[in-house]
């Protein structure tokens, strides 16, 4: 049975927030360089790789809460999605720092390395984004 897609995102059954979703991986977002700003589509694609190639720390800014809302028009308070940040650089100083865009709040200990929500070289971190209000999302480090 095909799932309906209206306005971005999917609603399963009666829209219970605890239903499991199954989907394809989609396109992996591959980043390079010292500074990157993600689109909502890149963030919600679930996997982001970064390789600054020995250039040092990299800042990866999330889209704004409003931009995520514009893409995921079916999201309601409590809707979530996960994203893996994978730092494929092998140079020790190449830390990937996740930076909150407007309307994004880091909650709890989202730190993996020194700095913002980060993934040290040759490591990864898993984050969960949860909608808390219109144009507002919280980000939790879950792995």
Question: Any overview of this molecule?
Answer:
- The protein has two helices and ten strands; from the N terminus they run E-E-H-E-E-H-E-E-E-E-E-E.
- The protein has 143 residues and is mainly β.
- The chain has one domain.
- About 3% of the residues have low confidence.
Give a short summary of the structure.
This protein has helices at about 40-45, 65-70; strands at about 30, 35, 45-50, 60, 80-85, 95-100, 105, 115-120, 125-135, 135-140.
Largest β sheet strand count, sense and barrel closure: 6 strands, mixed
Provide the residue-averaged pLDDT: 81
Structural class: mainly beta
Helix fraction, binned, reads: under 10%
Q: Number of DSSP helices?
A: 2
Number of strands: 10
- What does the radius of gyration come to? 15 Å
Question: What brief labels describe this structure?
Answer:
36% strand, 143 residues
Question: What is the topology?
Answer:
Elements lengths: L28 E4 L2 E3 L2 H5 L2 E5 L6 E4 L3 H7 L8 E8 L8 E4 L4 E4 L9 E3 L3 E11 L2 E6 L2
Parallel strand pairs: 1-3, 2-4, 3-5, 4-6, 7-10
Antiparallel strand pairs: 5-9, 6-8, 9-10
């Amino acid at each position: 049975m095909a799932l309906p897609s209206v306005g971005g995102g999917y609603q399963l059954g009666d829209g219970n927030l605890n239903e499991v979703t199954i989907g394809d991986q989609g396109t992996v977002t591959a980043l390079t360089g010292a500074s990157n700003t993600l689109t909502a589509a890149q963030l919600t694609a679930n996997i982001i790789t970064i390789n600054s190639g020995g250039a040092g720390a990299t800042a990866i800014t999330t889209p704004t809460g409003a931009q995520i809302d514009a893409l995921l028009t079916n999201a309601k308070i409590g809707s979530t999605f996960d994203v893996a940040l994978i730092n494929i650089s092998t140079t020790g100083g190449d830390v990937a720092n996740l930076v909150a865009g407007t309307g994004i709040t880091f909650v709890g200990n989202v730190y993996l390395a020194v700095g913002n929500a980060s993934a040290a070289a040759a490591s990864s971190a898993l984050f969960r984004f949860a909608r808390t209000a219109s144009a507002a999302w919280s980000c939790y480090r879950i792995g």
